[in-house]
Amino acid sequence: MNTSENSSDVPASLPGESTAPGRPVLEASDVRRALTRIAHEIVERNKGARDLVLLGIPTRGVHLAQRLAARIGEVEGVTPPAGSLDVTMYRDDLALRPARGLGRTDIPGDIGDRVVVLVDDVLMSGRTISSALDAIKDLGRPRAVQLAVLVDRGHRELPIRADFVGKNLPTSLSETVAVRLAELDGLDVVLLGSKEPKPASAKKGDRA
Amino acid sequence: MKRHLLSAADLSRDEALLILDTAEELARLADRPIKKLPTLRGRTVVNLFYEDSTRTRTSFEAAAKRLSADVINFSAKGSSVSKGESLKDTALTLEAMGTDAVVVRHSASGAPHRLATSGWIRGSVVNAGDGTHEHPTQALLDAFTMRRRLGSFDGRRVTIVGDILHSRVARSNVRLLHTLGAQVTLVAPPTLLPVGVQTWPCAVSYDLDAEVAKSDVVMMLRVQHERMNAAFFPSAREYSRRYGLDGRRFAAMPEHAIVMHPGPMNRGMEITAEVADSPRSTIVEQVTNGVSVRMAVLYLLLSGSESAIGSIEGESA
């Protein structure tokens, strides 16, 4: 459904406008290494996995959060809980676009006094994360909130930065970044495409 | 642009499922410490009630408030309507106050439609029950409750029992459940069936005993004493015996089947206390679900630049 579009900072990261979504900038092995590194960084930064809660932002952030939790479990022997946080109802651009359905919010237990690690696939304007911070405020009072993203493509519109980044990918606004994950798309790859070529032939199934 | 919800028939299967899925997510809000979302902050929703209805009005009010909308309750009693103000003038007043949505309950069938298509107001119109015509959000909350209890609609048999003639709930339910793929059977005394019921997408029966045994859902309707201005049935006792849901009929229902009632109930008339209070009765649950479903409707109608559901009428404004 259309809910998946809010997983990253749309619209510029939407790949749907081109039938050829672009060239791979991260292959499956790169994604794997990036997630392993982020998992280690999270453990190091928080001196272990105690009190951690990973919250993925639907759609692909949720799968990334689950993978990170599993990796942290392999490293530490303790798998932190992973959930999902849909921020649609908190977005500041809701009125600018057609109404859309909601993603899943599934908070594993109480987040009060825990360290919440937000996980998303692409970081761009920062508006999604800003909405996520508002949403977290309604759920409890975590000790700290950290942000992990697979790709940071720049173009921030708010003073927000990620604590853990898989790959910094400087892009132009005319480019698109599409993250494909095995759970949903059959393979792990990050594609860098261009918006202009075929705006009319947008495929409905394409989503970021 | 779509932006009204006037009839259950306005909804396609996908739209109806979108509302139910959205309501499902919103229902989870009840477990949170802060049961409020900022989504409709700054929007104004007017509950325009020309008929008494604490249940529906409160449900819409709770739904709008949980989405942070400002709510104005306007009931005809004790207002300028009792001084003779017309629907048009009331609508123009609401428009002048900058209303984004009007939730309207009216004793005249078609009043919400008039409000939506006349150009008097620019906002969304939600039908909260008009005469004997429709009550789409009630049908949605019933469908939501059924899906939660039974899983899906395909091939499910729903029996609606009682005063079909005066029931907007029955009419909306028949339409919506048909859209969703369930089989509906109406059971009522012949005098309480509307003319033209043969054209509805449902079956009709006069024998409740034959139907309960094969129903997944038995929905009892209230005997509306206030509308019983003619002799529709010989006596309350006879009605109760032929069309009431008592312990015996309840026992004949399949194990998994549920009992629904839109409320308020006449205990001892259409439903016995024993059945109404059984764990397989969803009557209280329906009220809770009503808030989630109405939140979903308000959210999908109002939050975006374009509504995700509803009819396309009323664009003359």
What report would you give on this structure?
The complex is a heterodimer of chains A (208) and B (317). Chain A has helices at residues 28-45, 60-76, 127-139, 182-185; strands at 23-26, 52-56, 82-84, 115-123, 144-152, 164-168, 175-180, 189-194. Chain A is α/β, with parallel strands linked by helices and 208 residues long. In chain A, α1 crosses α2 (60-76). Chain A is globular and about 45 Å long. The relative contact order of chain A is 0.25. By secondary structure, chain B is an alpha/beta fold. Chain B folds into 2 domains: 8-134 and 286-316, Aspartate/ornithine carbamoyltransferase (Rossmann fold), CATH 3.40.50; 136-285, 3-Layer(aba) Sandwich (Rossmann fold), CATH 3.40.50. Chain B contains 11 helices and 9 strands. Chain B has helices spanning 13-27, 54-66, 87-96, 111-117, 136-150, 168-180, 208-212, 236-243, 247-252, 273-276, 283-302, and strands at 44-49, 70-75, 101-106, 124-130, 157-161, 183-187, 203-205, 217-220, 258-260. In chain B, β1, α2 (54-66) and β2 (70-75) form a beta-alpha-beta unit. Chain B is globular, with a radius of gyration of 19 Å. The two termini of chain B are 12 Å apart. The interface between A and B is medium-sized, with 20 and 25 residues.
Care to give the gist of this entry?
By secondary structure, chain A is an alpha/beta fold. In chain A, 25% of the residues lie in helices and 23% in strands.
Number of helices of chain A: 4
Instruction: Choose one word for the global shape of chain A.
Output: globular
Helix/strand-derived category of chain A reads alpha/beta
DSSP helix fraction of chain B: 25-40%
N-to-C SSE string of chain B, H for helix and E for strand? HEHEHEHEHEHEEHEHHEHH
**Total number of strands of chain A:** 8
Major sheet of chain A: 5 strands, parallel
Instruction: Let me know the CATH homologous superfamily of the largest domain in chain B.
Output: Aspartate/ornithine carbamoyltransferase
Anisotropy-based shape of chain B: globular
| Order of neighbouring strands in the sheet with most strands of chain B | 7-6-5-8-9
Q: Which oligomeric form is depicted?
A: heterodimer
Identify low-pLDDT runs of chain A: 1-19, 201-208
Percent helix range of chain A: 25-40%
CATH domain topology of the largest domain in chain B: Rossmann fold
Q: Tell me about the biggest sheet of chain B?
A: 5 strands, parallel
Number of distinct helices of chain B? 11
Function (chain B): Catalyzes the condensation of carbamoyl phosphate and aspartate to form carbamoyl aspartate and inorganic phosphate, the committed step in the de novo pyrimidine nucleotide biosynthesis pathway.
Domain Aspartate/ornithine carbamoyltransferase carbamoyl-P binding (chain B): 3-147
Subunit structure (chain B): Heterododecamer (2C3:3R2) of six catalytic PyrB chains organized as two trimers (C3), and six regulatory PyrI chains organized as three dimers (R2).
Pfam families (chain B): OTCace, OTCace_N
